[in-house]
Specification:
The chain has 5 helices and 7 strands; from the N terminus they run βαβαββαβββαα. By secondary structure, it is an alpha/beta fold. Bound molecules: inosinic acid.
């Protein structure tokens, strides 16, 4: 079966994507490719950072590869933390640090609208493609739930009464930013196979 490298070592994401592409590709992680370098994400857009990651790994192994980059965009903060979502509260900060900083930043704010956006960059047969996935929602006033990761305890997707952290991963994946981008990737790969 054809190998497709996923430029990640996040086992949660890897498992999710393996399940979706199981009939078409053997999806392998960076670790399985013996790639251990830290890939920088120096750009100001998710598109550029995702492409950068895919290019670095493609240059390393020459195989077809895809990467993903995600940001949480809060309306009242003019789209912040956006591309800086991972290190919103500083370098080496924890998910909890980020969540607390965001709740504080929105402390007296009534407009709690936000969206998660994922960009997937694919290099297939030496050509580059990108796929976007977005989910709209709002930032809650308090944390709720213990599933998932990152900002999940304070993100309530539109049309739902629970945060992502109160959903099963299966339910979250059906409507999430990453789930939507991955579905587009999978549909595209089917047309190419
Ligand atoms: P990454 O590009 O997937 O590493 O995401 C960057 C940051 O966005 C992560 O460190 C998390 O803080 C946050 N993030 C990404 N995806 C999710 C999600 O599905 N739920 C909550 N937070 C997320």
């Amino acid at each position: 079966m054809k190998k497709l490298v996923f430029a990640t070592n996040n086992l949660h994401k890897l498992q999710e994507i393996k399940e979706i592409l199981i009939e078409q590709f053997e999806v392998v992680s960076l670790k399985e490719m013996n790639f251990f370098d830290e890939i920088e994400e120096p750009y100001e857009t998710l598109h550029k950072n995702a492409l950068q990651k895919a290019r670095v790994v493609h240059q390393f192994c020459g195989l077809d590869v895809f990467s993903d980059d995600t940001g949480l965009e809060v309306d009242a903060l003019n789209g912040a933390p956006g591309v800086y979502s991972a290190r919103y509260a500083g370098v080496n900060c924890s998910f909890q640090d980020n969540v607390k900083k965001l709740l504080k930043a929105l402390n007296s704010e009534e407009n709690r609208k936000a969206k998660f956006r994922t960009v997937i960059a694919l290099i297939l047969n030496n050509k580059e493609y990108t796929f976007d996935g977005v989910v709209e929602g709002e930032i809650t006033k308090e944390q709720s739930g213990s599933e998932g990761f990152g900002y999940d305890p304070i993100f309530k997707p539109e049309g739902f009464e629970t945060t992502f952290a109160e959903m099963t991963s299966e339910a979250k994946n059906k409507i999430s930013h990453r789930g939507r981008a991955v579905q587009k990737l999978a549909t595209f790969l089917k047309t190419k196979n």
